[in-house]
UniProtKB/TrEMBL annotation:
Keywords: DNA-binding, Transcription, Transcription regulation. This is LacI family DNA-binding transcriptional regulator. It comes from Virgibacillus siamensis. The keyword Transcription regulation applies. The keyword Transcription regulation applies. Residues 2-56 form the HTH lacI-type domain. SUPFAM superfamilies: lambda repressor-like DNA-binding domains, Periplasmic binding protein-like I. CDD domains: HTH_LacI, PBP1_CcpB-like. The lineage of its organism: Bacteria, Bacillati, Bacillota, Bacilli, Bacillales. PANTHER family: CATABOLITE CONTROL PROTEIN B, LACI-RELATED TRANSCRIPTIONAL REPRESSOR.
Amino acid sequence: MANISGIAKLAGVSVSTVSRVLNNHKYVSDDKREAVLKVIEEMNYTPNKNAIDLIRGETKTVGVILPYNNNPAFDQMLNGILNKASENDFSVTVLPSEYNKNKEIGYLQKLKSKLFDGIIIASRASDWETIIPYSNYGSIVSCEYTHNTEIGCSYSDRYSSYLDTFQLLKNRGHFAVAFTTARLESNSTNQMIDAYNEVFGELPTYYHISDCQCLDDGWEAAKKFLQSPERPTAIYANGDEVAGGIYLYATSQQVNIPADLAIIGQENQPTGSVLGITTIDHQLTKVGEEAFNLVLNKSREKIKVPYSIIERESV
């Protein structure tokens, strides 16, 4: 079987010269490069990618830890990462975690084993104290804000966006406001509850439903909200698909949107656009793009991506 040592011997050059040719190094004379390439062709040699990665000191591969691969919000983030990866000739490996801490640590071990140049964490279950030591082995970038100096992050200021959204509803005369979230135990859920309390006062338990991910979840959430002790006049959904389910259930019950019920979604997704639902766009594609740039530049910067409120007919 052909190997670098054999190629070097047949071409009459050193092993390091063969390595430089395989890595497209510019400091190789034309005659030596030609001799090496001729032997490679004659021996039908295919270089071992892992060996070349070790020589080069990089894999040109980025891992992306994300909980689900069928969630519109994470799809937007991943799309941004893929855009920039393609521009820079990088490969992307998707690492679905389902918020399983053991899976997350297993993926970080791959960074330690030099299988990735860096890892982007779209969302996590593990605490930062567990994650940070792995930053010694490659770039780790978060898609949520973290004050840790060892970790770069690309993020949208979600707390401010939640405050602005609740304040918008209050300014429109809504005081009975309900909302949905994806996970009960998460930073974004805690921030949304804090923002609600700041704008409206203490949150009634029947105005918050968690574990909402899709259209069907929105339908079921709307059914519960509209049967609550004090029916809400506005609902803020954690995604436009969830908002779409709320919209469809409400209209099936002859609830007029927005006269009887105002609805706001998130992330400017097609469902919201088709149904005319007001949305909070956290520009997740841009968050993904900036996250990749941080890995590429081995940067630990904190990059804040601005959000915007897109008003439509549902408020």
